[in-house]
Amino acid sequence: MAKRKGFIEEFKLFISRGSVIDLAVGIIIGSAFTKIVNSLVNDVIMPLVGMVLGGINFTDLKIVIRKESGDLAALAITYGNFIQAVIDFLLIALVVFILIRSINTFREKSEQLLKRKEQEIEEVVSEPTVPPITDIDLLTEIRDLLKKDK
Fold it and tell me: Does 108 fall in a domain?
């Protein structure tokens, strides 16, 4: 029973760590993002690619090894599916690259703006508005006033 309790406590500790929760959130967002990117590729980009290439639907491309006869099903190498998967991968990678690049550009611009604002604040704070008065300055002023009154 003691080992079981130790295992349960260890599992609770593992599952409550921030990194596990971050990973779970990443997986959930990743799967939702995958649906968006797949829809963009399959529903928007691939029809345009097919139109440019003369209406070719890659999934229809195949080499028939054996035609259907009687109880035997047709046997074919569907290389079009492979081509489609490669194109899907490249387009998805391109979309993700553009997205990450845009995020990085935005982050860099934000950091540059923040640095400029920090420098402006530092310049304003570091500039003395009134020079400090020393004992010598006070004594000189008193002497000048005394001379003036004579």
Answer: yes
In sequence order, what are the residues at sequence separation of 6 or more whose Cβ sits closer than 8 angstroms to the Cβ of residue 96? 37
pLDDT tens-digit series, residues 9-59? 888 887 777 777 788 888 898 888 888 878 887 888 878 887 888 877 778
User: Residue 46 belongs to what domain range?
Assistant: 1-52
What is the spatial distance between Cα 106 and Cα 111, in angstroms, rounded to a whole number?
Answer: 9
Most distant CA atoms of the chain, gap in Å: 133
Q: Is residue 146 part of a domain?
A: no
The continuous run of DSSP H or E covering 77 comes out as: strand 75-77
Task: Give CA–CA dist 127/36, Å, rounded.
Answer: 53
Question: d(Cα 91, Cα 41) in Å, to the nearest integer?
Answer: 7
104 falls within a domain: yes
pLDDT, tens digit, 9 for 90 and up, residues 84-124: 888 888 887 887 888 889 999 999 999 999 999 998 888 77
